[in-house]
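Chain X:
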Amino acid sequence: MSYSAKIKRGESIIYLVIWLIIFLMPVFFSQRSDGVDWNRVTREWVKIIPFLFVFLFHNYILFPLFFIQKKYLYYFGLTLLLIIGISFITIFIGREVGPSRGFLPEIKDLPPPQQKPLGNIPPPGSMKLRTGLLLLFEDFITSVLVIGFNAAIKITIKWQDEEQKNKELEKQKLESELAFLKNQVSPHFFMNTLNNIHALIDINSEDAKESVIQLSKLMRYLLYDSELGKTTLSKEIEFIKSYVDLMKLRFTSKVSIKLSFPEKIPNIEIPPMLFTSLLENAFKHGVSYQKKSFIEIILRTENNNLWFRIKNSKQSNDNGIIETGGLGLENLKKRLDLLYGRHYILQENDTEETFDINIKLPIYE
C-alpha cells in the first residue's frame, strides 16, 4: 500500500472514531436510574445529523472540488451558504423535535401571555426571539467548528502527503544524480587501468597478467558491491589497496607510496567508490618517471567520523603546466553534497610542490 493510500485510510479512521464518539455521547449523558432515555437520545441524534451532513458535504465536495483546486472564492462562498442554511435548518428541527439543546435540562414553559410579567422579565415574544437568535448563533458556530476541524485535518494530511512526495522525488533525483556521477567515474577508471595494462604487456608480461587479476577484483567490486549503493569500509579499503597494487606495477622505486589504515577496521558502511577520483588524480598528476615523487594515503576513524587524507607531489604535463583536481574532484564534491549535505568537510591545500586533500565524513555503526 502506498503512503497516500495509508494516509487516506488513517484519515477515514479518524473521522469514523470522532463521529462515533459524538453519537455515543447522548447515550452516555441520557442515563437514568431506570435505563436510557431513548426519546431524548433520538432527539439529540436528529439534531446532530445536520452537522454530519455539513461535514460530509465539505469533506467530499467543497474541499476537494474547490479548495484543492485553488478556487478559494467559490469555496468560501459556498461554505458560508452551507453554514447559514444548516443553521436555519437546525432551528426548524429543534422546534419540531423539542426544546432541549445539547445535554442540558429542558427549558420550562414561560407564563401564559395573558399574565402580567413580573419585574423586568421581558414579554414571551421577545424572549423567544432572543432564544432563537442565540440558538441560530450556536448552530452557526458549531458548523464553523465542524468545517474548521475538518479543513485543519485535511490541510495537515495534504501537507504531509506533499512532503512525502517531495521526499520521494528528492530521493529519486539524488539516486539519478549519484548514478550519473558514478557512471562518469567508472569508464574513466577502466580506461586508465586498461592503458596501464597495455603498457605493461610489452614491458613485463608476468606483471601484465598480475594486473589483469587485480583488475578483475576491482571490476567485481565496481559491478556488484557498488551497485548496492553502500559498501563496508573494509571493502573500500581493499579496493584502495588493489588499486594501488595495480598502479605500482607501472612505476619504479623513485615513486614512494605510503598507506595507513586502521589495524582494526570498524564495521561501518559508506558510499562505494567515494575516493576513486582522488586516487586517479593522485596517480595522474602526482607521479613522475624521471624524478622522485610520492603519494600518501591515510584513512582513520575517530569519534564517529571518518577521516581520509591523500597527499601527492605535483608534476607538470608536457606543456610544463602543473594540473590538479579536474573533473574527478568536482564530481566528488557533488557526490558529497548530495550524500551528506552540510555534514562533511573537504579541505584542499594546494602548494607549488604538493596537493593535499582532507575529508571528514560522519559515520554510523
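Chain Y:
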Amino acid sequence: MKKKAVVLTSGGLDSTTVAAVAKNEGYELYCLSFNYGQRHLQELESAKRVAEYFGAKKHLIIDIDLKIIGGSALTSDIEVPKHREEKEMITKIPITYVPARNTIFLSYALAFAEVLQSNDLFIGVNAIDYSGYPDCRPEYIEAFEKMANLATKVGVEGITKLKIHAPLQNLSKKGIIELGLSLGVDYSITHSCYDPLPDGTSCGECDSCLLRKHGFEQAGVEDPLHYAK
C-alpha cells in the first residue's frame, strides 16, 4: 500500500510544487484546502484543479470563518499593499499576514492525518521568499511537529512519529519553480494573487504576484499566468 500524505493545498505555486514532491516520493495524496473567509475564492478553484491534476485520493475543502476575527488584508476590508520592493516586504510582518493561519491549517491537517493513519503532512512554507510571515520559519515548523507528537493519540502511544515535510523551506522562488518544472508541474493551473480582478485575473502588483513574476524571470521561464499589469 502507498504511504498517505496530507498536503495543504492552496492552489498557489508553492503548495502545488509541494504536492508534486509528495507525489514523486510515492505518496498517495490527501489534499486539504480552506474556505477561510478570504477576500476571493479564485484560489479554491485552483486548489480543485491541483488536486485533480495530481490524482488526489481525496480533497477536502473546510469552511472556517477567519473574517470574523479579521486583522489581515486577506480577510478584512484593508487595502492590499502594491508595488513594493522585495527588501521592503521583509522589513516587518505585512498586513497580508493572516493571524495564526498556518497553525489553524496544520491543526486540521494533523487531525486528518491521524484519522487516515498517515504519518506525513506536507506544507509549502518557505523561509527565503516568505514575505516576513512568522509561521513560515523553520523553528515554527519544528515546534509544531514537536507539539503534534505530544498532542495526538498515535504520538503519545508511540505508534508512529508524525512528520511535517517542508521541502521548500530553504529554496528561493526561482529554485521552487525549477524544482516544480523538473517534476512536470503545469503552473498554468495555479493562482498566487492576493487581490485578483473580478474575473480572476492576477493583479500583477501585490507582493505575491511580484515574487512570483521575479521567480519566473530568474528561472528564465515564461510565467503561464496572465496579469492585469
